[in-house]
C-alpha cells in the first residue's frame, strides 16, 4: 500500500462541509488502484466543526442542530432536555430550520459551553455569540466550508493532537 497525507480533503458532516488540510491519510493499492482514506479523531472533528458553526453568524439549519447534537453524543430527546425544550420543538427545528433570535443565541451559548473543553485548540469567547448579529443566508447560498487542520498542542503538561480552524468565524 502506498500512503500519503492529502493536502486537502472535503468531508460532508451531515450538511456542514469541512475542508481538512494536511490531515487525512490516503492508502492506495498500486496493484488494483483501491483507495481508502483515514480521518484522524472523527469525533474531535465533529465537535470542532459544531463549535465553529455555532460561532458563524448565519442562522442555524436543522442539519446544523443535528450536527451539534451528534457532537454532544445526545439523541433528540436528551438534547431537548439539556436545552430545556420539548422534544417536539427540537424535532420541528431539526426538520424545518432553526430557532432564530434570542433562543438561537441561547442554544449556541449552551452548545459552546458543553463543547469547548473538548476542542482545546479553538479559541472560544462567549462574547462572540452575545455580540453576534445572526443573518439569514441569501436565497440559494450555502454555508462556506469550514477549514480545519490538525495541530499539536500542549495542555496540562501533555502534548496532544487537536483540530484547529484555518479561518476565523465570519
UniProtKB/TrEMBL annotation:
Protein name as catalogued: HTH cro/C1-type domain-containing protein
PROSITE patterns (UniProt xref): HTH_CROC1
Residue ranges of every copy of the HTH cro/C1-type domain listed in the record: 65-96
Organism: Methylorubrum zatmanii
Gene3D superfamilies registered for this protein in UniProt: lambda repressor-like DNA-binding domains
Amino acid at each position: 500500500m502506498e500512503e500519503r497525507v492529502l493536502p486537502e480533503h472535503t468531508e460532508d458532516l451531515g450538511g456542514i462541509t469541512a475542508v481538512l488540510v494536511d490531515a487525512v491519510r490516503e492508502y492506495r493499492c498500486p496493484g488494483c488502484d483501491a483507495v481508502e482514506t483515514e480521518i484522524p479523531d472523527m469525533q474531535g472533528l465533529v465537535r470542532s466543526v459544531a463549535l465553529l458553526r455555532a460561532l458563524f453568524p448565519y442562522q442555524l439549519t436543522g442539519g446544523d442542530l443535528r450536527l451539534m447534537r451528534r457532537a454532544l453524543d445526545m439523541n433528540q430527546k436528551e438534547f431537548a432536555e439539556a436545552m430545556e425544550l420539548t422534544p417536539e420543538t427540537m424535532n420541528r427545528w431539526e426538520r424545518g430550520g432553526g430557532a432564530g433570535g434570542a433562543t438561537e443565541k441561547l442554544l449556541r451559548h449552551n452548545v459552546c459551553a458543553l463543547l469547548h473543553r473538548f476542542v482545546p485548540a479553538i479559541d472560544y469567547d462567549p462574547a462572540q455569540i452575545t455580540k453576534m448579529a445572526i443573518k439569514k443566508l441569501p436565497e440559494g447560498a450555502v454555508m462556506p466550508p469550514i477549514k480545519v487542520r490538525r495541530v499539536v498542542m500542549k495542555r496540562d503538561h501533555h502534548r496532544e493532537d487537536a483540530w484547529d480552524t484555518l479561518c476565523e468565524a465570519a
